[in-house]
Amino acid sequence: MPARLEIFPWSDNFATGIAEIDEQHQRLVGLLNALVAHLAFQAEAPALNAVFDELKDYTVVHFGAEEAIWRQFLQDDPWETGHQAAHADFVDRILEIRATGEGQPIDEVLGRIVSFLTHWLALHIIESDKRMAKAVLAMQSGSTLSEAKACAEREMSGVTRMLIDTVMEMYDRLANRIVQLTREINQRLAVERELRAARDELLRLKTEAVETSVAKSHFLANMSHEIRSLLNAIAGLAHLMRRTGVTAQQARQLDRIDSAGRHLMGIVDSILDLSKIEAGKFVLEQIDVSLGAILADVVSMLKERADAKKLKLEIDADLPPLALVGDSTRIRQALLNYGTNAVKFTEAGTITLRVRVVEEAAESVLLRFEVEDTGIGIAPEAIDRLFSAFEQAEESTTRKYGGTGLGLAINRKLAELMGGEVGVRSTLGQGSAFWLTMRLRRGTSAARRVATSAGAAAEAALKHTHAGARVLLAEDNEINREIVQTLLEDAGLAVDAAEDGLRAVELAGAGDYALVLMDMQMPRMGGLEAASAIRGMPRHARTPILALTANAFAEDKARCLAVGMNDFITKPVEPAVLFATMLRWLDLPPESSNA
Question: Average per-residue pLDDT in the chain?
Answer without folding.
Answer: 81
